[in-house]
Design a protein that fits this description.
Layout: E1 3-8, H1 12-23, E2 27-32, H2 35-44, E3 50-54, H3 62-71, E4 80-84, H4 91-98, E5 102-105, H5 110-122, H6 124-127
Parallel strand pairs: 1-2, 1-3, 3-4, 4-5
Helix pairs in contact: 2-3
């Protein structure tokens, strides 16, 4: 069984990197360039097991994407990893306050990404909100 991963990032190189890193494991990765597309995929496709979202996206921000995912009963408990190339403005704290389970600064390593995704998917206690 492949874990279904949805990636929302407006940088095509980051999307390709994530697809390449996770594509070598038990993951089926879908990438999109904005939050609106991510929401369409979430509503239209089979359920995703995890969402990886950039903090800054065109249109709806990554923070707003997380809020919408958390407000939907069908996706409220989906693990979410927020990524960002900006390490100022307490981005990790803002991401967690919005409902992200993990935060990775760009550039992240292959090991950081794979470990974070694997832990969130395989150990439910790691991603229960408020834990």
């Amino acid at each position: 069984m492949a874990w279904r991963v949805l990636v929302a990032d407006d940088d095509p190189e980051i999307c390709t990197l994530i697809v390449t890193i996770l594509g070598k494991g038990p993951y089926a990765v879908t990438a999109c360039s904005d939050a609106e597309s991510a929401l369409v995929h979430i509503q239209r496709d089979e359920p995703y097991d995890i969402l990886i979202s950039d903090f800054m996206l065109p249109g709806i921000s990554g923070i707003e994407l997380i809020a919408q995912v958390r407000q939907n009963a069908a996706t409220a408990r989906m693990p979410i990893v927020m990524i960002s190339g900006h390490n100022n403005y307490a981005m990790d704290e803002r991401a967690r306050t919005a409902g992200a389970n993990a935060f990775l600064n760009k550039p992240f390593t292959l090991l950081q990404l794979r470990t974070t995704v694997h832990q969130l998917l395989t150990d439910p206690m790691d991603w229960v909100l408020g834990a």
